[in-house]
Design a protein that fits this description.
single chain, mainly alpha, two-stranded antiparallel sheet, 2 strands
């Protein structure tokens, strides 16, 4: 009985791991996607807003990506404006970016944990080399994909209808200080990444997660359909 309960718990943990795995992977992809940064810079005319050339904006984006993946505690990023070099972020922005980096690394660790568990569970299931275990794994993938799609539908609708409130609540929950409250007239961090950018980034993550769920769930569904024909 204890083994059966443990097996059921392990299966449900695997199912619930899939949405976490796909979402954290999508967030990690977005954080490291130079294309996404450049897309936002072009869409929201950031060069005109900041007075920085496109090459300097790219330098800033690359510098942020490098900082988020480094062991540096504080960021120090210099760019050139009107042929004069200057440090892009003030102390308030540096502190906030340090907090953001902490969230990004939390995402990385959660992604790693979910990936390790999912691969371990899948490996043990396939190790038995029995079709019923393979089918159980496929049903788990299908279930995890379905939960992911439901969650992404909710996130997508929330983003489309009430993004302002979601964005505010995210900051209130995620940060224990007020350094995220920046001035768009003088703080370059918010000039580089206006709220519209985060709206697009959220939809990007939701879409990437959805595509991952569809691919995995679709593959599991095809496998279940084919093996059902073989056993019937």
């Amino acid at each position: 009985m204890n083994l059966k309960i443990l097996s059921i718990a392990a299966k449900w943990l695997f199912i619930l791991c899939l949405p976490v795995l796909l979402l954290t992977a999508s967030i990690g992809w977005a954080v490291n996607s130079l294309w996404l940064y450049q897309y936002g810079f072009e869409k929201y005319n950031i060069s005109q807003t900041t007075g920085l050339a496109d090459t300097e904006l790219e330098k800033a984006a690359r510098g942020l990506i490098s900082y988020f993946n480094s062991d540096e505690e504080d960021i120090s990023l210099a760019v050139v404006k009107d042929e004069q070099p200057f440090v892009l972020f003030n102390q308030r922005e540096v502190i906030h970016l340090k907090d953001v980096k902490g969230l990004i690394w939390l995402d990385y660790w959660v992604l790693l944990g979910a990936l390790v568990y999912a691969l371990t569970y899948a490996g043990l299931s396939l190790f038995w080399r029995r079709k019923r275990y393979w089918r159980r794994l496929a049903w788990g993938v299908l279930g995890g994909g379905g939960i992911t799609l439901a969650l992404m539908l909710a996130l997508g609708l929330g983003t489309l209808l009430r993004f302002d409130q979601l964005f505010l609540q995210f900051h209130l929950i995620s940060f224990t200080n007020e350094f995220w409250q920046l001035d768009p007239a003088k703080d370059y961090l918010i000039m580089l990444f206006p709220q519209g950018f985060w709206y697009d980034a959220t939809l990007f993550c939701a879409l990437a997660t959805t595509v991952g769920a569809v691919v995995l769930g679709g593959a599991a569904g095809v496998y279940l359909k084919r093996t059902k024909r073989q056993t019937s």
